[in-house]
Amino acid sequence: MARNNKNQFGLIILGNSGVGKSFLANILLDREIFKHEFSARSVTHRTEFQEITFDDHHYAIFNIPGLIEADQTRVDINKREIDQAFTQRPNSLIIYVFGQQNGRIRDEDVVAFNAINAAYPLNIESLLLVVNGLPATRPKNYEGEVMLMLQDIIQVPIAAERVCFLNHIDRENSNERQALRKQLLSFIVELSPTEHVKAHDIHLNVEEVAMLKKQIEEMAKEFNANKVHFEDEIRQQQKRYDDLITHQKAETESYHRIIERQAEEAKEMRQSQEAQVQQMQQQLETMQQEHQRLRDEMATKTKAEAQAMQRALEASNQAQLALMNKMVEIQSRPPTVIEQSRRPSVCVYYAK
Q1: Positions of E strands within the chain
Q2: Could you tell me which residue ranges the AIG1-type G domain spans (predicted)?
Q3: Band (41; pLDDT cuts 50, 70, 90)
C-alpha cells in the first residue's frame, strides 16, 4: 500500500556542499546526528532524515547532498536524492543555505537554487533563505543590500522575515550554538508548510555550470555598478530587517519570562500539593488510631454494641481507603499551569 504523506511534514535543508547544511540540521536537532566536517569534498552523499512526532503529525528534518559537483554522475545522483526528499515529504518547510566568500554570495549557490526552484517552484510562505558563516562585523547595510541583490538574481520576492543571516560561531561553544539555534528557530516558526509539486526534472549539466556562474557573476556586477541608485531601497530593506531582529529579540525575551513565570507557578502548585498530602497523611493517622481504639474496645462490649462498632470499623476502612486513593491521585497529578503563550514547533528530516 502506498504511504500517504499528505499529513506528514518535513523541513528540507538544501544547498551546495560546504555551506553548512549538516551543521545547521544538528543545531536544530540540538544534538550531533549528521556528519559534518571541513572538507573540499561533499560529506553528505545520501538524503538523511530524523523523524519526530508532534501533535499527532509526523515531522522530519532533511539533510540533502549538495547539487553541484565536478562529476556529472554525482550531480545526477544528487538530483535523485533531492527528488526523494520532496517525494517523501511534499508538504514541507524549505531552508536553502547560501555560502559566501568575504560576504559575497557564491555564484554556484545561486545556480543551484535556480535549478531547484525551476523544478520545484518554492512557495515563499514555506521558504527560508539562509546566508551562513558570516563575520560578526560587517558593513552597516549588508543585509539590506544582499536581500535586494538576491531578489534581483533569483527572481523571488524577498521579505525580511524570509532571509536569515547567521554569524560564524565557535562550534565548541555551547552558548553560541544555542544562540544560533534560537535565531534560526525564530525565523522557522514564521513559515507554513506547503505542498511542493514537481514541475519538471532538475536541469543541470556540469558543462553548463561555468556559463551559468558567469551569468550570475555578471548580474551581481551589474547590481553593484548600479546600487548607488538603490541606496534608499537598500536602507529601507535594512531597516525592515533590523526592526524584525529587534522584534524577535523582544518576543523571545517575553516568551522566556512567561516560561519562567509558569515554572514558578508549577513549583508553587507542587508545594501546595505536598502540603495537602501531608495534611491528609495526618488525617489518616488520626483515623487509624481511632480505628484501633474501636477494635480494642469491642472485646468489652455487648453483642449489640460490638455489632454497631463493627459497622463503624467497616465505615472507617472505607474512609481510609478513599483518603489513601485521594492522596495517590494528588501525588500523581502533574501541576496544571494556564498556558499564556505558545510558540509554534517545528521538526527536522534527513535520509540515509
Answers
A1: 8-14, 48-54, 57-63, 91-98, 100-101, 104-105, 127-134, 163-167, 194-195
A2: 11-201
A3: very low
pTM assigned to the model: 0.73
* Residue 94 DSSP SS3: strand
Angle at CA 253, nearest 5°, toward 260 and 169?
A: 110
Cα(301)–Cα(306) distance, integer angstroms? 6
| Contact criterion met (CB below 8 Å) for 13 and 65 | no
Phi, psi of 346 (to 5 degrees): -135, 165
Q: How many CB atoms lie within 10 A of CB 273?
A: 16
Residues constituting the chain: 352
* Under 8 Å between Cβ of 329 and 40: no
- 104-105 and 100-101 beta bridge pairing: antiparallel
Residue 334: which region, alpha, beta or left (left: phi > 0; alpha: psi -120 to 50)?
A: beta
Helix, strand, or coil (residue 161): helix
| Amino acid letter, residue 320 | Q
The residue assigned the cell 544560533 is 180
Nearest Cα residue to 105 out of 220, 184, 231, 236: 220
Tens of pLDDT, residues 57-114: 566 888 888 899 989 999 999 999 999 999 989 999 999 999 999 999 999 999 999 9
What burial letters (b/e) apply to 144-176, b meaning 16+ CB within 10 Å?
A: bbbbbbbeebbebebebbbbbbbeebeeeeeee
Instruction: Check residue 73 and give left, alpha or beta (phi > 0: left; psi -120 to 50: alpha).
Output: alpha
**CB neighbours of 183 closer than 8 A, spacing ≥ 6?**
164, 166, 248
C-alpha cell at 12: 528540507
Mean pLDDT taken over the chain: 85
